[in-house]
Amino acid sequence: MAEARSHHDWNHTAAVMALLANCHRDPKKSKTFKPNDFHPHTQRRSERMPTVPVSVLKQVFVDRQTGK
Fold first, then answer.
1. Which portions of the sequence form the region Disordered (predicted)?
2. Structural domain boundaries of the chain?
3. Which helix (H) or strand (E) holds 57?
4. CA pair distance 65, 15, nearest whole angstrom
């Protein structure tokens, strides 16, 4: 229920932020903003977290413990 409330609140906040950003942007220099540009729950995963190969995780967590 708390997550749904957070999504609801961010839907409202993101819409207001997009409206303000579009009011103050230069139409010749920038694109139109959408609420999803400001909504943290709808950002693509690739933007939030970088991906690394499994070998890097093995070096950090497994090899460190065994002393290699």
1. 27-50
2. 2-66
3. helix 54-57
4. 48
pTM of the model: 0.59
Answer for the pair 33, 25: CB distance below 8 angstroms, yes or no.
yes
Task: Please name the residues in contact with 46: beta carbons below 8 A apart, sequence gap of 6 or more.
Answer: none
67 conformational bin, left if phi > 0, alpha if psi -120 to 50, beta if neither = left
Q: Model confidence over 33-52: pLDDT tens digits? A: 999 999 888 866 555 666 77
What is the DSSP code (8-state) at residue 31? P
